[in-house]
């Protein structure tokens, strides 16, 4: 019997001829002669399982022509300094919300304020990942170590017109009163918090405003972006078209702004001495996301719905007695389950009966295979003979199944001419003739 062994990157592939009763350890020795990888550094995978040395190819149902993937274990070299550092470092329970910034290598000393902002001030910060503005608060201000050397190379933002001022601002984004993450930005990506809404009657073509827009689905609420108004249509049906800036320079033209009554005037960056001393008071948060709405019942409490209510009975009552599946995200009353539960289980992850995998069938990497009663009764498992039956074509499995005709078909088969010959009987089964099962 022959099988194929292929590297994970699919660049190298070999064909090996060996017995179906051969152990995995024998397969690894053959692979070593071709790929020059020591057996103890080989990891072999087939159908999501890691092949272990004490089992045979037959135990893993590897048939003729099947592909086994090989991965080489990485060689980890631990130095004395690393061992000392690992022994000194204790477990930490703190969860870091800081995002790795490209400016970390240029941070100088921390200061309490710059010419434009101070620590603790509520601002809008622009996240380079989304290109949108988010509400936040300045936690720290750092000096730029290389500012004097590269002072002339910094460019201004197309909207604000502000270049780099020689400081980096660590802004903590706030969601529902909690810090979601912190980023480090320059002056062009931070400005005072936008608070003033602009009446629709006062919006004119060419105005630079802050508006809510969803790039992926313009019919829904999204993030807040800088916009330049290009068209204003008043009357019974108000409409607003603008050029939406995603980041400092990238823009989308002819974007229809959905929430015309929430267009805001973004905060103007001014020196601290020229601003009013009221920036320490947290302003009202802007609405970024709308409450979830069920597309099936439109949040009608009197209507049964298996999407937003119990997935079994459809009722929306007793929310405290409902448990949600972590896979399909459907809710279930604890008494609607099969079998019913007496209380909400105290577990981190819970799965319904349709999504839950049988733990007895899961084989972890390096674990032993589950014993099969069917295989234990097979003649191949009874060691009554010393003959190696796994090398020939008599016991190989089918690599394809004929689906042109049903398995109990009697009569001619399309594509199989009268007088066709096959070398092995398994080929006749694959063609749809004399199928044993």
Automatic annotation (TrEMBL):
GO annotations of cellular component type: nucleus
Top EC class, one word: transferase
EC number: 2.3.2.27
Gene3D superfamilies registered for this protein in UniProt: 2.30.30.1150, 2.30.30.140, Phosphatidylinositol 3-kinase Catalytic Subunit, Chain A, domain 1, SRA-YDG
The PHD-type domain, residue ranges: 307-358
Pfam families referenced in this protein's UniProt entry, alphabetically: PHD, TTD, ubiquitin
Biochemical pathway: Protein modification; protein ubiquitination
Record-annotated YDG domain positions: 411-437
Catalysed transformations (reactions): S-ubiquitinyl-[E2 ubiquitin-conjugating enzyme]-L-cysteine + [acceptor protein]-L-lysine = [E2 ubiquitin-conjugating enzyme]-L-cysteine + N(6)-ubiquitinyl-[acceptor protein]-L-lysine
Domain named Ubiquitin-like: residues: 1-73
Biological process (GO), any one: negative regulation of gene expression via chromosomal CpG island methylation
PROSITE patterns in alphabetical order: UBIQUITIN_2, YDG, ZF_PHD_2
Domain of life where this protein originates: Eukaryota
Compartment list: Nucleus
A molecular function (GO) term: zinc ion binding
Swiss-Prot/TrEMBL keywords: Cell cycle, Metal-binding, Nucleus, Transferase, Ubl conjugation pathway, Zinc, Zinc-finger
Protein name, UniProt field: RING-type E3 ubiquitin transferase
Organism of this sequence: Homalodisca liturata
